[in-house]
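Q: What changes when S-adenosyl-L-homocysteine is included in the input?
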Amino acid sequence: MAENKEDIKDLSLAELTARIKSLNEPPYRAEQVFEWIYKKGGRSFGVMTDLPAKLRDYLTNKFFVTGSEIIKKQVSKSDGTRKYLFKLSDGEEVEGVYIPAKDPAGGGTGRHTVCLSSQAGCAFGCYFCASGLLGFKRDLRCGEILDQALAIQDDIGVAKGPVGPKGPAGPKRITNVVMMGTGEPLANYDNVVKAIGIMNSPLGLGIGARKITVSTAGYIPGMKRFMQEKEQFELSVSLHAADDIKRSRLMPINKKYPLAELMEFCREYTKGKGRIITFEYILIKDVNSSPTDAQNLAKLLKGLNCKVNLIPFNAVSDFKFRQPSFKDVKIFQEVLEKAGIKSTLRAEKGVDIDAACGQLRLREAKIAQVKHENFS
Ligand code: SAH
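A: The predicted holo structure follows.
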């Protein structure tokens, strides 16, 4: 990849169409290029044999198709989860995860979820999360977000099947996307929204908007913009505590956007959009997982159109947080249930492969010592 070339995946279909038109080529050529990249697994312009040779040459000189490479891959023996470490063109590293699951409705070809990173490093510094330990490096470009999805799709064998109207007919097509890898997606707004737009587009990856989830630490300015998007993308909010003292000790962002403001906006969002919000709640032993914490959470969420996703803390060796017992997790869930709050318990995935956010990258970076002074 030459340095002066552009990533073709940084362009939306409208942008690529405008470029193609300026070459006096018919606009449908842009659609053909899109189909090649996102549906037929074309990873160079040379393979796009239905384009005129002149256009192929032009594209080859101006653009590149893939810029990131997989430098490490771990496959969970227990559940098939795959974790990838990608190296970007400037040497930065980000993680992506593939999580296979059975179709909840049974039958079908199963659920194939990818978890993607939006930034290299993270500026938000949540005290339980490995992603922020190395600080913030930079935003990912749209094409770098898509690179992760395409590389995972290729790796799970999706792009190799025959091509049907909806894309490769192989049994494994990405069906769900969660922007829950490294970074705060709503702080890299334009690139993330463009990337999920391409994932959603019928000429892109063709994944339904309701199957694409953006997760935020509660970055209200980004949430306000996200509310204006016309597509029905899903929103998750990482809550993790139901009072300001605890939440600020876990998530520094709470000092800037405290719970009252966050919850007020969440209520506005669910009413305005007519959509539910999923609240992510990590359960940490002796920190936020007592029955009283559950009662406070139920109070906080009362009357809100929402669901809680309980996540037993995934141990990160640099932190001394621990997971509560299964019994305590169940008690927590029962308190919520009695109060009429719907919750799901996230099954742990890839426990044998550093599956928590930022862990693989962290280990690779061989951090010798990280001081963690909260809760000491
Ligand atoms: N910045 C966004 C996107 C990251 S999503 C956000 O905060 O939502 C990653 C999810 O995994 C978040 O809910 C995060 O809080 C959670 N997470 C991070 N470290 C974890 C760990 N060690 N165990 C379990 N969940 C973790």
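Observations recorded in class: The longest helix spans residues 259-273.
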